[in-house]
Amino acid sequence: MGDGAFDSGAVLAALARYPPLPARGARVAVVGGFVRDIWLGRDPRELDLVVEGDAAALARTLGGEVVIHEPFGTATATGAGWRVDVAMARSERYPAPGALPQVAPATIEHDLARRDFTVNAIAVTLVGGELLAADGALDDLSRGALSVLHERSFVDDPTRLLRLARYAERLGFAVEPRTASLAARASVATLSGARLGGELRLALTEPDPVAVLGRLADKLPLAIDRSLAEDALALAPPESDRAMLLLGVMSSEEAWLANLELTTREHEVAIACLRAGVPAEVTPSALWRAWRGVPIEAVAVAGARGGGDAARRWIDDLRHVRLEIGGDELIAAGISEGPQIGRRLERTLAAKLDGELTGGREAELAYALRGES
Ligand code: CTP
């Protein structure tokens, strides 16, 4: 932890693993979380640069693949093992609460003043290593406090309510009282579903997403249950979408989830987790009827809601069971094409799952060829 004395050299030294950054031209600074994290002795998650000029031009000098976001004056350069986000130093005007801002070129000092929290409103220039910081930024960094820079911060940009929860948990910082009271009065209602969904994705990939959502329970339709969430995650296999599992298991409204503009798959997983319950019957074939086609995350949630043994069995074993025969074998044996092929295979798989069929391929074929019951 820093003690109030700021070491700009440490910030510049940490840039060594990036491509060479420009040493002349428009004023450029490292900004935000990178500076904050170096100061705190943490590993920065990403590099943000701010430039008093053309962000796309600066991004192009870095090499790598460049993506430009014209309306916001930002660009991203990505290479092997690195990624740099570049933003034009700007002032922002919010045409309406929760809307995306209109931006205009500004100095880096002005740019810092439009940011979310003082601990992120801090920059070090590439040339000269000059520290630029909003009022109170270094104090807040030393005492571990989250403070907004102005009264309208959460009204202009309610995504900051979610950012506040993320930083409070990840950094273990306290929310300064005036900021806490502004946050208590603010609402996410003016945010589009897409923006809220995007911020929730970020919240759900934090080290302790349950704690982050717990801080948002008075702003969002959530029912936080840590042990339920942890039990479900413990059951979920590695390929699970852990973020959508958590979102679904802690959401209390389907309509709200539907409005978040998640991808089709994300939405399907989250809704299935919200709805997941323990099946009435737990024989292997009954589990197959209940859970085939159901996202595996929802099975893990059903397990956490009381169906633990059944869910474990399904996840570890039953979901992988397949017949050795297929429709072609039945057709070759004289069964005419049509829905009965599927019914016969299904019936045979149910028998196999329930342990009524041993003997592999021959036994499966004989069972499938028996008259339809
Ligand atoms: N920012 C902001 N308001 C937002 C989003 C971002 O003021 N709604 C500013 C903050 O100054 C932040 C910077 O933009 O530091 C970059 O945003 P982001 O990349 O999301 O955060 P980091 O600073 O990189 O911090 P971290 O990745 O650790 O969350």
How would you explain this protein's 3D organization?
- This protein has 3 domains: 136 residues, Beta Polymerase, domain 2, CATH 3.30.460; 94 residues, no CATH class; 48 residues, no CATH class.
- The strands form 3 sheets. A 7-stranded mixed beta sheet has the order 3-4-5-2-1-8-9. The protein has a two-stranded antiparallel sheet with strand order 6-7. It has a two-stranded parallel sheet with strand order 10-11.
- It has 19 helices and 11 strands.
- Helix 15 packs antiparallel against helix 16.
- Strand 8 and strand 9 form a beta hairpin.
- The longest helix is centred in the C-terminal third of the chain and has 21 residues.
- By secondary structure, it is an alpha+beta fold.
- It binds cytidine-5'-triphosphate.
- The site of cytidine-5'-triphosphate has 12 residues, from helix 7.
List keywords for this structure.
373 residues; alpha+beta; Beta Polymerase, domain 2; 7-stranded mixed β-sheet; two-stranded antiparallel ribbon; 19 helices; 11 strands; binds cytidine-5'-triphosphate
